Amino acid sequence: MIINLLIAAAAGCASALMFASIISGALISLLLFYLAPLPLMVAAMGWGPTSAAIGGALAGVSLGAMFGPPYSAAFVLTVALPSWWLGHLVLLGRPVAADAPPDGTAAAPAGAPPIDWYPLGRILVWLACFAALTTTAALLTLGTDASTITETLRHGLLRIANVQDTGSGDRASEVVDAFVAIAPAAAATIAMTTLTLNVWLAAKVTATSGRLRRPWPDMKTITLPPMVLVAMTVALALCFVGGLPAILAQIVTACLMMAYALMGFAVLHTITLAQRARGLWLTCVYAVVLAFIWPVIAIVGIGIADAIFGFRQRYMQRHMPPPLVPRS
Fold first, then answer.
1. Which residues, in sequence order, are CB contacts of 225 under 8 Å at separation 6+?
2. Helix 166-209 with 37-47: angle, nearest 10 deg
3. Which burial class, exposed, middle or buried, applies to 179 when counting CB atoms under 10 A from its CB (0-12, 13-18, 19+)?
4. How far apart are CA 60 and CA 13, in angstroms?
5. Longest distance between any two alpha carbons in the chain, whole Å
């Protein structure tokens, strides 16, 4: 019990320091800020969600005492709450009967029933929900209507651009307006990417230390629930209604599109299994996406097409060897 409390306090202190480092304005502080959930997630997956809850509470109280309640509330909403809940979901499982279908189950020690772990696809949906929630909360601090949010973003970006003369000001204003239009979706994309990276890193660290009770899953087999595609279609349609609902719809759409981008990468990892230069092909794909960003749209399309047509399932059915039939 004492060890768990010490782990929780250490994780909370680390997360609080990483979160508060953004005040320094240094470039490295941005990386630390985005990785702030990592210590609490490691504590949640290795020592239980209670450790993350205790550490998050201690960190929130400390940040509130030093910087004020708004800073504490921001930490709890964007760091502590996702870390606790996602760590809980990663470790969530239930014993299944011996004659149950093997999907989603993992090998258990001798004498123990197999465990049906919480599906990774649903964890990915929760990641999208938290990314959308934190991005929406951040935008609502700028205003409660679309015009106020847009003007606040525009004034902030113009101040960063530091426009001086009229000629360059007109050009900069056009560029700023373009950035303002894509800012909600871009912020949601960054939030979804960094939160997913934190969960993956936390699970990897915990698994490497031997404290992850859940066996490491096959990432290529992750699938999203069918209703996610319906939700993304509705959100995409709402992007054209205008006003605050359109901004919120852009945020939801961006988060769900990033989830399907991960499905697209899973498809690429699956259909290249038989390729000799598989590592080179995948490295080139990741390099192109990281360098130019926009090719991720094609990856999203692959993920959506897989959700509709089942490319991975068809590929595995064609390339998996037939089951062995015992001789009578």
1. 121, 122, 125
2. 20
3. middle
4. 10
5. 89
Secondary structure (DSSP) of 44-64: HHHH-HHHHHHHHHHHHHHHH
Q: 270 - beta bridge partners?
A: none
Question: Model-level pTM?
Answer: 0.87
Q: How far apart are the first and last CA of the chain?
A: 56
DSSP 171-236: HHHHHHHHHHHHHHHHHHHHHHHHHHHHHHHHHHHHHHHT---SPPP-GGG----HHHHHHHHHHH
Residue 74 has a CB neighbour count (10 Å cut-off) of 18
At which residue do the structure tokens 């601090």 appear? 141
- Which tokens in the block code for residue 205? 């660290």
CA distance 215 to 40: 20
Q: Give, for 93, the enclosing helix (H) or strand (E).
A: strand 93-95
CB contact at 8 A, 118 and 226: no
Q: 91-109 as b/e, with b when 16 or more CB fall inside 10 Å?
A: bbbeebeeeeeeebbeeee
Q: Among candidates 188, 206, 186, 87, which has minimal Cα distance to 136?
A: 188
Sheet of 93-95, strand order: 93-95, 115-117, 105-106
Which helix (H) or strand (E) element contains residue 115?
Answer: strand 115-117
Rounded to whole angstroms, the Cα distance separating 71 from 61 reads 10
Highest mean pLDDT among 103-107, 206-210, 314-318: 206-210
Match 């991960």 to its residue by tokens.
262
Structure tokens at 265: 């990468």
Lowest mean pLDDT among 52-56, 89-93, 104-108, 275-279: 104-108
* Percent of the chain predicted with pLDDT > 90: 53
